[in-house]
Specification:
Blueprint lengths: L9 H10 L6 H11 L4 E4 L6 H15 L1 H6 L10 E4 L3 H14 L7 E4 L6 H9 L3 E4 L1 H9 L10 E4 L2 H6 L3 H9 L6 E6 L4 H10 L4 E4 L10 E7 L5 H12 L4 E4 L3 H13 L4 E4 L5 H12 L5 E4 L14 E4 L6 H8 L9 E7 L4 H11 L95
Parallel strand pairs: 1-6, 1-7, 2-4, 2-5, 3-4, 5-6, 8-13, 9-11, 9-12, 10-11, 12-13
Helix pairs in contact: 2-3, 3-5, 7-9, 14-15
Enzyme class: hydrolase
Catalytic activity: ATP + H2O = ADP + phosphate + H(+)
Organism: Duganella lactea
Length: 464
């Protein structure tokens, strides 16, 4: 099947051809006709499957060919926000809006992206000029709604991208507030890597007789990714990683740590070994994160060290190596992590450095993916067979946050389970302020995750 068979306009086909893509991915083959049909959609697709183009292309087509849209996008008429795309993180929001601009370059539609960690005033100015398609993170969008600097009354299409991650980050309350500001008659598109009970509950309340598509087995890992476990003592992980990078001459490696502090410490250690590395996490400024991502994508940076939520939205073609320096305590995060390699038909390798403390985590991961991962002991790094497990430090900040504090708790609740939320710290400011930094929308640093049904917090300000 080719893109030309999907019924896209000449303007969109021209933009697609300029990107070099000729054959749609499975999610695009199914999602594009479903969205063009005008109905609601529930789509199961992991990152790296081409889902962004799966909703941006038909969204652009519907808005640019609609009779009402033609009037709204004429030079003499004010623009109203007609499509709203919500994403869990800043990086993903920026990436999605870039896709909208690339694919929509030959239409008359324009777009904007708003997220926290940067000043709000330039965003207010841009919104005043009029925007057709708005990409936003929930926290910053609510700031604009509170200040009445955004008008969502004309939204025709709503997209919730990576809805599972938004729920994991405690955004359900914010999403409901955003939904309350939208017109009841609209097209709703929900994309999620997994179909958990929480996602199904959200879909039941949001979608009207949706088409349902799922392009990967539930919670499956990509078969073309070579996965292996290197058993190692906890204090030998850093020298083992440096050994692997140098021995195999890895030129582009994405490394996951459990905490922000761990990410910073590892970068310092790798730099002493002569290995270029930078970290991205919630305590880094937006400019620092953008710089690190850009250099990594351009192959100017050898190692990018990331926490789970900060890495959301990293989309790099043919990323060869992902390393789990620390195993995630949420098994589904393992699937998200390794899914960043082995994309677009390329092969990839996912390596996990596992110490005795993480054996239970490894069991949970193998149970989820329904396979036993091969173990390979590296000579010189044989683990001590008498070593005993120690409790894992699941956070580097306030209580209840797996990945650190500095988070924004409106009303702290009991953690869902030990280790609590998916928080990732940083970036939150009081409503009256904007920019980078600690603080929360209404006090409190890094509290625990309330149960999902009544989640009260914004996890670590990542949506700001």
């Amino acid at each position: 099947m080719s893109f030309s068979s999907l019924g896209l306009s000449d303007a969109l086909m021209r933009a697609v051809s300029e990107t070099g893509y000729t054959t749609p991915t499975p999610i695009q083959q199914q999602a594009i006709p479903a969205v063009l049909n005008g109905g609601d959609l529930l789509a199961g697709a992991q990152t790296g499957t081409g889902k962004t183009a799966g909703f941006t292309l038909p969204l652009l087509q519907r808005l640019s060919t609609d009779a009402v849209g033609a009037k709204l996008t004429s030079n003499n008429s004010p623009r109203a926000i007609r499509a709203l795309i919500l994403t869990p993180t800043r990086e993903l929001a920026a990436q999605v809006e870039e896709s909208v601009r690339i694919y929509g370059k030959y239409t008359k539609l324009n777009s904007a992206v708003i997220f926290g960690g940067v000043g709000i005033n330039p965003q207010i100015k841009q919104l005043k000029h009029g925007v057709d398609i708005l990409v936003a993170t929930p926290g910053r969008l609510l700031d604009h709604m509170d200040q009445r600097t955004v008008d969502l009354s004309k939204v025709e299409i709503l997209v919730l991208d990576e809805a599972d991650r938004m729920l994991d980050m405690g955004f359900i309350r914010d999403i409901r507030k955003v939904l309350a500001g939208l017109p009841p008659k609209r097209q709703n598109l929900l994309f999620s890597a997994t179909f958990s009970d929480d996602i199904k509950a959200l879909a039941d309340g949001l979608l009207n007789k949706p088409a349902t598509i799922e392009v990967a087995r539930r919670n499956s890992t990509v078969e073309i990714i070579a996965q292996k476990i290197h058993p190692v003592d906890r204090d030998k992980k850093h020298p083992m990683l440096a050994h692997l990078i140098k021995t195999h001459q890895w030129s582009q490696v994405l490394v996951f740590t459990r905490t922000k502090h761990g990410a910073n410490k590892l970068v310092e250690q790798l730099e002493k070994d002569g290995i270029g590395a930078m970290a991205i996490h919630g305590n880094k400024s937006q400019s620092a994160r953008t710089k690190a991502l850009s250099e990594f994508k351009d192959n100017k940076l050898q190692v990018l060290v990331a926490t789970d939520i900060a890495a959301r939205g990293i989309d790099i073609d043919q990323l060869p190596h992902v390393v789990n320096y620390d195993l995630p305590n949420v098994p589904e995060d393992y699937v998200h992590r390794i899914g960043r390699t082995g994309r677009a038909g390329a092969t990839g390798e996912a390596v996990s450095l596992v110490c005795v403390d993480e054996h239970d985590m490894l069991k949970d991961i193998e149970k989820l993916i329904k396979q036993t991962l091969p173990r390979e002991v590296i000579p010189g790094f044989e683990p001590d067979p008498t070593a005993r497990a120690q409790p894992i430090q699941l956070r580097s900040g306030g209580p209840g946050h797996r990945n650190g504090g500095g988070g924004g708790n409106r009303n702290s609740g009991a953690p869902r389970k030990p280790g609590g939320g998916n928080g990732n710290g940083g970036g939150n400011k009081p409503r009256s302020a904007s920019g980078n930094g600690g603080g929360a929308r209404s006090g409190g640093g890094g509290g625990g995750n309330a149960p999902r049904a009544a989640a009260q917090h914004r996890s670590g300000g990542r949506g700001r």
